[in-house]
Write a structure and sequence with these properties.
Layout lengths: L1 H13 L5 E3 H10 L4 H5 L17 H18 L4 E6 L5 H13 L4 E6 L2 H7 L6 E3 L12 E8 L8 E7 L6 E11 L5 E7 L5 H15 L4 H4 L5 E4 L2 H12 E13 L14 E3 L18 E3 L2 E2 H10 L3 E6 H6 L4 H8 L12 H4 L7 E8 L1
Parallel strand pairs: 2-3, 2-5, 3-4, 5-10, 10-13
Antiparallel strand pairs: 1-7, 6-7, 6-9, 7-8, 10-15, 11-12, 14-15
Helix pairs in contact: 4-5, 9-10
Length: 371
């Protein structure tokens, strides 16, 4: 099939580790390569039956984000305030923010960044301040942003590795983790292969951070893992967060994404696993190469890891569910009207953002403050 042949060419070209590539390299190529999903096939406005980013298209979502961001910008005050949006999609937030800022009387420049030329072209409709670049290597000077950096469903879109726990079956002792690779066999067929993690691999640093956290709350990560438990882990989370900290002089970083804390979801089989959209391209993990370029490959964000990294960077943190965050921006009268199906309110059709049960809300909001 075409997708398999495409990946085979990638494997031939890479030729790293004797023709093998780790899973995150495959994800990076599949999403962001020349023929990648975000470059060529990302659906715009449901044109492929799969909404690109429903929350960003939601007027209520934009209004309530503005209600949080605008006071932060006013408090900072002074000239050269900026709002930097990472992964701006179709530019819907940018369009509405520019409308709202004139009503609110707050002055700032809006800068949007996206790796996809196709999406940048959409964002240009609402202003010229656009940059086509990767968020993990921002073309911005150190401490050049005074204001707010906003990342909605960006961290889940970073390339991620796949690992599994290995235990001694007789004594159930943790022995380490293995990493998933794709390799070409002698017949040039693509095969999935689990390989031991090398001692100097950054995976070990990631794992040790999670282990230290578990120890701090009186638990043992290694003991709680079952043999063969598969995790998707995102090493680019640290790269991106350090990059955002580098360019932020003063203000806030707002991260909205789906995911959870590691200790709350350790044995939940559906969390930190591979997800593929549109669903018609979904296959088992070890056959994911069959959907190369055709699907959005993603996994849950480990908010435990992000908060631990933020602490290392001396950033002040605030963490809550998206519904809790959004409700905090409403007046009591607005909240009453929105949840009342008999009340006449223009936001009724978007009330799922607010009425979701806290325990069922997979979207979280992490706010990091500096200065």
């Amino acid at each position: 099939m075409l997708s398999t042949n495409s990946l085979a060419r990638v494997l031939h070209c890479a030729r790293r580790d004797n023709g093998a590539i780790p899973f995150d390299v495959f994800v990076g190529e599949s999403l962001y390569g020349q023929n990648g999903f975000y470059q060529k096939r990302v659906s715009i406005g449901n044109e492929a039956g799969d909404a690109f980013c429903t929350h960003a298209e939601n007027p209520l979502f934009t209004e309530l984000i503005a209600r949080h961001a605008f006071p932060c910008l006013r408090e900072l005050g002074g000239p050269s305030l900026r709002f930097l949006e990472l992964g701006g999609g179709m530019g819907s937030l940018k369009k509405r923010f520019k409308e709202l800022k004139y009503r609110a009387g707050v002055d700032f420049s809006y800068l949007s960044l996206d790796i996809s030329k196709r999406l940048i072209d959409f964002q240009k409709r609402w202003g010229k301040d656009n940059i086509q670049a990767s968020a993990i290597s921002l073309p911005l000077a150190d401490r050049s942003i005074r204001g707010v950096i906003f990342a909605n469903e960006l961290f889940d879109a970073l390339p991620f590795k796949v690992v599994r726990a290995v235990k001694n079956k007789d004594q159930n002792l943790f022995q380490g983790v293995e990493e998933l690779y794709y390799v070409l066999d002698k017949q040039n067929e693509i095969q999935a292969e689990w390989r031991p993690v090398e001692p100097n691999s950054p995976i070990n640093n990631y794992w040790e951070r999670q282990q230290r956290y578990f120890q701090s709350i009186g638990r043992n990560l290694d003991d709680e893992l079952e043999n063969g438990r598969v995790f998707c882990i995102n090493l680019y989370e640290e790269t991106l967060l350090r990059e955002l900290n580098r360019v932020l002089a003063q203000g806030e970083i707002i991260i909205i994404d789906y995911g959870d804390e590691l200790d709350k979801t350790l044995n939940d089989k559906g969390v930190f696993d591979l997800r593929m959209y549109p669903k018609k391209h979904e296959v088992k993990l070890e056959q994911a190469h069959q959907s190369v370029y055709l699907a959005d490959l993603t996994t849950d964000v480990n908010f435990t890891n992000l908060m631990l990294l933020a602490e290392e960077l001396d950033l002040e943190t605030s963490y809550q569910t998206q519904s809790s965050f959004m409700k905090s921006q409403l007046t009591r009268e607005e909240e009453t009207m929105i949840v009342n199906p008999l009340a006449d309110h223009p936001w009724h059709e978007y009330d799922e953002v607010l009425t979701k049960d806290e325990k069922e809300d997979v979207f979280k909001v992490l706010i990091l403050r500096k200065g």
